[in-house]
Write a structure and sequence with these properties.
By secondary structure, the protein is an alpha/beta fold. The chain folds into two domains: 190 residues, no CATH class; 132 residues, no CATH class. The chain is built from 16 helices and five strands.
């Protein structure tokens, strides 16, 4: 049976509440800078202006990019761009709004659009139609180089240990306020070898069969389940509420992991064992994956040395267990409840 993406994960009130616990309150400083295009281009060439990975690619058509250049040549105002200042990265500027404009300008100076196509103006006044930057009159080149673009600089002052506000700002500027999921923020905050590994193992066939949907979840909720399992498997004794922060802290510790594949193997071996023992979609207790059943059973499998011959009967017993049902449907992120369900799953399935 096909599972709709929105129904992939069962909604549990305690899990929803956990997402709002400990959400940081930001203190942001913003200030404008009026910079000439020549200065912005020089910063781009030095690598001081960066288009972050969470941005979409260049999507403007040549006519759109041409109209922007024409606006500068005509002396017309152009909307501001927004950049996020990375203090720990040498004041580099992450573009959070305005990358289509910037890449159009830089592409015109370089003679090519980001997609590799030659950039000659099209759909503009006859004076400039078909011209590239090198074809402009000297005075026109000077006009373009000295044209000013307002840059709104944004710095996160508090909290000072993470840059999560940049992704929230980006999302609000570009999607009318749709909030990023926790894993979408982690994907951008903790990018690196460990995160790359998670994206790859998320494609594993066994995992897709267990998750119930063959394509990766657009909001990365499937990847969050992988991290949740790895974090609890490695350090359930150190778990503290909220679950959201526990998972984020785990990813932060492993962001630059030198051998992330060993964690991927743990997940793959465990999910293959679960699929072989319990069949497809074993954690869809009512509607979608029950995340509390998922993490407790997965950790039990990962830490077991031998799978009993009657594992399916044991799992049925576990699912029907009155107390297990209670602690996988309410209070699921409470410290005592997390520890209890991990212990109960291990006891019923493997002892």
């Amino acid at each position: 049976m096909l599972v709709e993406p929105n129904n992939a994960i069962e909604q549990i009130d305690s899990e929803e509440v956990d997402l709002s616990v400990g959400v940081p309150v930001y203190r942001i400083r913003s200030y404008p800078s009026d910079l000439e295009l020549e200065t912005l281009h020089a910063r781009w060439l030095r690598g001081d202006i960066i288009i972050p990975k969470f941005q979409r690619g260049f999507v403007w058509k040549p006519a759109q990019a041409s109209r922007l250049i024409e606006s500068f040549l005509m002396g017309l105002p152009v909307p501001s761009i927004f950049v996020y200042i990375q203090r720990e990265a040498g004041q580099k500027q992450l573009v959070i709004d305005g990358q289509q404009r910037l890449q159009s300008v830089f592409g015109f100076f370089n003679g090519k659009l980001p997609n590799g196509r030659d950039f000659r103006l099209t759909g503009v006044d006859q004076r400039w139609e078909g011209k590239g930057y090198i074809d402009l009159e000297h005075s026109e080149q000077a006009t373009l180089l000295t044209s000013v673009l307002r840059v709104v600089n944004i710095e996160q002052l508090e909290p000072d240990h993470e840059d999560s506000s940049v992704y929230q700002i980006f999302e609000r500027l570009n999607t009318g306020g749709t909030m990023l999921t926790p894993q979408e923020i982690r994907n951008s905050s903790y990018h690196g070898p460990f995160n790359d590994m998670l994206i790859e193992v998320n494609k594993e066939t066994a995992w897709r069969d267990v998750f119930g949907i063959q394509q990766p979840d657009a909001r990365m909720r499937d990847i969050e389940l992988i991290v949740r399992f790895l974090a609890l498997n490695e350090g359930s004794d150190e778990y503290s509420k909220p679950m959201r922060k526990f998972i984020s802290d785990y990813m932060a510790r492993h962001q630059k992991e030198s051998n992330p594949d060993k964690y991927g193997r743990v997940f793959i071996e465990t999910i293959e064992q679960v699929l072989e023992s319990l069949g497809g979609r074993p954690f869809h207790i009512r509607r979608g994956i029950n995340v509390a059943v998922f993490d407790s059973v997965m950790v039990a499998f990962a830490q077991s040395k031998k799978t009993p011959a009657d594992i399916q009967e044991r799992y049925t017993t576990l699912k029907d267990h009155e107390r297990f049902t209670a602690i996988t449907t309410a209070g699921t992120t409470d410290v005592q409840v997390v520890q209890e369900r991990l212990e109960l799953a291990n006891k019923v399935l493997f002892l």
